[in-house]
Inverse folding.
């Protein structure tokens, strides 16, 4: 399993780093790509060095994509036609597509959310609810589409990704290692 995480200037640091950490603990290969070469600054001024730039990766080598939210990170992702093209390609090929916080807006812009079960940061629910099958849950799974709500749901989101990608036993192992509490606990 090889997963791509996209970072754009203004990404939400908790959402990105938490997911990267939890997936790597689970032995899932996650490659972090920035829209350009070099450091990417998050919405709270934390700079992260991605593993690669978007131009250096080949999307067809990945089993899925994850988008963190953050402002203006999700807006910057949605403005990049390369990102939108990868999202559409992965969804069309039945690969995993995941987004947290306001990043589901990027998925909406890519045109893959109509009629599907999703969640988003509560600040974005009005627009999304009219175009999708919106749920208030902290993490929502609709086949290979996984969405979540905010920095406070990042561990639940990451653990759900582990469960979906590597199985319930691996998820429980990582949950026990990190003493993470989830909504169901």
């Amino acid at each position: 399993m090889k997963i791509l995480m996209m970072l754009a200037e203004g990404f939400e640091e908790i959402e990105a780093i938490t997911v990267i950490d939890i997936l790597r603990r689970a032995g899932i290969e996650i490659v972090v790509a920035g829209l350009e070469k070099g450091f990417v600054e998050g919405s709270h001024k934390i700079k992260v060095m991605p593993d690669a730039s978007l131009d250096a990766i080949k999307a067809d080598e990945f089993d899925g994509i994850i988008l963190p939210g953050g402002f203006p990170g999700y807006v910057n992702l949605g403005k990049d036609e390369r990102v939108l093209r990868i999202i559409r390609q992965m969804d069309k090929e039945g690969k995993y597509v995941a987004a947290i916080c306001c990043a589901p807006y990027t998925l909406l812009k890519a045109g893959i959310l109509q009629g599907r079960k999703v969640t988003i940061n509560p600040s974005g629910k009005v627009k999304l609810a009219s175009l999708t099958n919106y749920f208030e849950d902290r993490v929502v799974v609709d086949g290979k589409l996984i969405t979540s709500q905010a920095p406070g749901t990042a561990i639940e989101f990451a653990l759900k990704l582990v469960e979906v990608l590597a199985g319930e036993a691996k998820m429980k192992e990582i949950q026990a290692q990190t003493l993470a509490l989830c909504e169901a606990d």
Remarks:
- The chain has one domain: 2-178.
- The first helix runs from residue 13 to 25.
- The radius of gyration is 15 Å.
- The CA atoms of residues 41 and 47 lie 4 Å apart.
